[in-house]
Every structure is written in structure tokens, then in C-alpha cells.
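Hey, can you fold this one?
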Amino acid sequence: MKKDYKYRTIIISDVHLGSGGSKAHEATAFLKQNRCEKLILNGDIIDGWQLKKYGSWQKKHTAFFRVVLKMMEKNDTKVIYIRGNHDDFLDQVMPFVIGRNFQIRRDYILRSGDKKFFVTHGDVFDSITSGMKWLAHLGDVGYTFLLWLNKKYNQYRTWRGMPYYSLSQSIKHKVKLAVNYVSDFEEKLAELAKNRNCQGIICGHIHHASIRDIDGITYMNSGDWVETMSALVEDYRGNWNLVYYHVEKPEVSQVSDLEVVKEEPVPKRFVASF
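Sure. Predicted structure:
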């Protein structure tokens, strides 16, 4: 009997389970609402860096993986977990395969229509992470503080009856160095796709959701589940879209329907915790 899938492929990244900023409830609810043949967890799903320092593993983080397991069992969904820089502890077990529906990899080739997409988290091109890891950890501390400040600021706005405002996003997209980094990152990833004889690249890492063309290469970034709450989805005609998960009110976890976005809807973003 043919399964009633909603999408052929769903790709999410940068959930950062174990960190204080992770939108674990929303990410879990998103997976509960959607069915797919293939689910790609494209890196930084678990935040090992935060867990080593001051993060904590909670029931809501376990619930995320319970839903993933249920998708595998009930819907026969194939799950591919791509290793990111914050879950680099997976290096100790890669490559790892359980049955025909679960595997952990460093990268992956995805066929979509008549195209091949190279799927990677994206940290391979981050010279700070690969060459100066201590500086990357320092940036992680700064980003964590920025998220904490953003939370306190919006608690005040809620008390005053004002709508949610992303102070952290506002600060980040105004930094010229950040904008330049994003541009360089996207161009280098497009070059990687060409070198791998692929027509597209799918990544995460910089927490900046995007679908765009770069010199004939389709560049796609799934965003994150710390602030943006976005995912990439592929329908059965080979069309790709970004979907965003919107919270109706800051103080509750009840969410509205998914908004499908075909054009880039957000300003360029930079995340210091690469």
C-alpha cells in the first residue's frame, strides 16, 4: 500500500538540541505535522558544545528524536543525519548505518528531478571552525549571550503589550563583516557543488535560510531552529520551497499553519556560533 506522503524530502538543520536557544518544541511539532519519504537532518541537530559547558538535555529534546523514530517506524521514512560542527562527536561513529532507514554521514548526494544536489552542513568552509576552534567556541559564547539578551528584551516587550522583535537578528544583519561572510560562504559552497559534478548545493550552518541561483548552481540553505524556524521541502514534481514555522504568541508554543515561501524572504543573517 502506497504511503500518503506530503513531501518527497524534508531538510532541517541547526536545531541545537541541548542549548538554551533551541526551539525543540516547535521543531518537534513541525515533524509531527508533516510526512515525507526522506528526512535529512543536516547538521548541528545536537549541540555538543553547549552540552559540554552549560547546556542541559531535557525531555523536549528527547521528544524530538522520538518523533523521528516514529516517522521511520510508522511512515517508513528514510532518515539521513549529516554531521555538523556542533555535533562533531559523531566523528567517533561515522559512517553509521542501522537497517535501511537510518544512517549518519559527513555528506550526501541527493537526486531531485534531473539534478544532483551535494548535501553538507557547511562547516567545512569555515576557516575559523576548522583552523581556530578556540575562537569558534568564543563566538559561541557571544551568540548565546545575544540570544539570552534577546529573550529578556522580548519579555519586556510582551509586558508592554508590544509584538516580538528579534534584537539579535537586527544586530547581526547590520554588521558588514557578517554580510560579507554570508556572501563568501554561499559562493564557496556553489563552487563545491561544481567540483562534485552536482547542479546544486544544500547546506545549513550559517542560520540563514535561502534559495538562490549562483552562476547556474542552485544554492539552498535550510536555516535554523533557534530563531528562523525554517525548513526546505521538496514536492513530487521536484520543486523546492522554504517553509517557516510561525509562533502566534511569544508566550505559548501553539503555532499557526506553515507559510510556504518561494522567494528569499529575510535579510542576510550571520551567526557567531559556527
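DSSP finds seven helices and 13 strands in the chain. Let me know if you want another pass with a different chain boundary.
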